Amino acid sequence: MKKLLISLTLLFLALSTFAQGNYRDVVHLNNGSIIKGIIVEQVPGQQLKIETADGSIFVYQMDEIEKMTKEPMPLSGMSTRHISKFSSPTAKGTIMISGSTNLSFASINNETKLNSDYNNASYEYDTNQFSFSPSIGWFADNGLVVALNMDYESSKVEIEEETYKESTFLIGPSITYFFGSSNIKPFILGEYMVGNYKSEDDGEHNSATVNGWGLGGGVAFFLNQHISVNLGLGYAHMTSTPNEAASAVSETISKGIAFDAGLSVYF
Fold first, then answer.
1. What is the chain's mean pLDDT, rounded?
2. 3: part of which helix (H) or strand (E)?
3. Residue 103 is part of which domain span?
4. What φ, ψ does residue 31 adopt, rounded to 5°?
5. Which helix (H) or strand (E) holds 26?
6. Rounded distance, CA 68 to CA 119, Å?
7. Is 79 in the same domain as 124?
8. Pick from 104, 91, 260: which is nearest to 181 by CA?
9. Are residues 30 and 69 in the same domain?
10. Taking every annotated instance into account, which residue ranges of this chain make up the domain Outer membrane protein beta-barrel (predicted)?
């Protein structure tokens, strides 16, 4: 009887430990975000650290938190996407939509004054510019995102009765890898893009085929589970080949260092 009682006690303790190990912490933020993982550190009245399924560690101040609860761990048979979508913005299965600071529209009125001993004159010209650079990606693995990028730029300059227009459209794939497990994640990326360039100068039309590649890196600052601000620096190489057989220019190569800042949304 005594041995049976001891065995039942040990079994109860084992089941209790197992049950506790099958629960995870759920942190509900004031902005509506839900972070699921294990709280690894908590400073009463100040902050806490929670580790998500992919090993990322997020730090939140107590005044950012609405409430904290626990829930049973998902069954092993559930899909990775279902398990990870609340765990980390860079977890496998997450969707990422990005846009850079190239998203802009400008309409500028310019005035140039000529002043010399032989000629005093001035003329005005209008410049209209528009650019849009969206990207949509999918995390094929924790930290590794495969994306489709697009880039569209156009400009129009009007000088008196003359008009000059040009536009560029590029599309292509990219691969980005995020490092680390904190709110600040370094990343590296590579991309390839292909498209076309068109110009019109006072009724004369020209076009060219454009392709290029780029390599770079940067840092993503995660404001919360769903939003990051990205700063990057990279090297770009673009080649433009005129479509007109009679063109005097056979090829134009543009290359150099580029800085980029943008915003990404994860869901």
1. 79
2. helix 2-21
3. 95-266
4. -85, 5
5. strand 23-29
6. 76
7. no
8. 91
9. yes
10. 113-243
